[in-house]
Design a protein that fits this description.
alpha+beta, 5 helices, 5 strands, 50% helix, 20% strand
Length: 176
């Protein structure tokens, strides 16, 4: 096992214990409704993770699972619209594009702001995989920062939009 894999597993266990301790804390305070909400949130998270794991993309999966510990001012949530697909042949492509986008954002955006980051993968039978990455921010990023990101986009065919919610990156990857 590589050092990176062991580090991801250590953080993973730590996060799981934190989630369970929060539920236990709410129950100990007699706040069963809060405990139930937190438990439901935790189950939703692990259901998405189950779908991620069923895609057979080990490098991409490890990057997603270790994301919040690798990037100090980004917090990732994700949604997978399909499951039980063998996409191992796309593992490095999805990983490289997502790492590229987050790398640019890390370089260009304010390191003192915590950015909620949402990844969505839409996977259907015969259509390209559609990936959307939203970097949310309460403060409006300057037009110059967005232009800097667009200028570094090179030829990866990544669409970039600045919206009221933040910066949206989108790209497609053929399934074959």
């Amino acid at each position: 096992m590589s050092d990176d894999t062991i580090r991801v597993l250590q953080h993973y266990r730590h996060d799981l214990m934190n989630r369970l301790q929060i539920v236990q804390g709410y129950l100990g305070m007699g706040k069963a409704d809060k405990a139930e909400d937190k438990l439901s949130e935790t189950l939703r998270h692990y259901n998405e993770e189950r779908k991620l794991m069923s895609l057979n993309m080990p490098a991409f999966m490890l990057w997603i699972i270790g994301f919040n510990h690798s990037y100090e001012n980004f917090r990732l949530t994700y949604k997978i619209s399909s499951e039980h697909r063998d996409l191992q042949h796309l593992d490095s492509i999805l990983l490289e594009r997502c790492q590229y986008i987050v790398g640019i954002c890390k370089d260009v955006l304010d390191s003192q702001i915590l950015y909620d980051t949402k990844l969505e993968l839409e996977i259907s039978a015969d259509s390209p995989i559609k990936a959307t990455l939203l970097i949310e921010s309460e403060s409006n990023e300057s037009v110059q920062e967005i232009e800097a990101i667009k200028n570094r986009n090179e030829s990866l065919e990544i669409d970039i939009d600045n919206t009221a919610d933040g910066i949206i990156f989108g790209f497609s990857v053929p399934c074959q």
